[in-house]
Design a protein that fits this description.
alpha+beta; two-stranded antiparallel ribbon; 2 helices; about 15% helix
């Protein structure tokens, strides 16, 4: 994905929901899904049949086990700065996490 810079508060134009087209919001992707389909919180919740009521500005929603940034099998979609792809869920560098968290959670 071209143009991702973690120092920016903006997302590149191609970072958009593959369902509704939402841009400049946090997006999620299927865990180990190829090809990657990006979804906003609302579309990911619909596809996963999960309730996101109470989702916060960090993209975390309440569950019976505590708060999580996962929506079913969807995990935060954090692109790398080298335009190669998306970080693995447990491998995202702190700068990438901070970039993703700065984006609005809902459109």
């Amino acid at each position: 994905m071209k143009g991702v810079r973690y120092s920016s508060a903006q997302a590149p134009s191609e970072y958009k929901c593959g369902c509704c087209g939402a841009t400049q919001v946090k997006l999620w992707r299927g865990y180990n899904e190829v090809p990657v389909k990006l979804l906003c919180a609302t579309c990911a919740a619909k596809e996963a049949n999960k309730n996101i009521a109470g989702i916060d500005s960090d993209g975390r929603r309440p569950t019976d086990m505590g708060r999580t940034d996962q929506i079913g099998f969807f995990v935060p979609a954090v692109p790398d700065e080298e335009d190669v792809g998306y970080w693995g869920y447990t491998s995202v560098p702190t700068a990438g996490v901070n970039w993703w968290r700065r984006l609005p959670t809902l459109k």
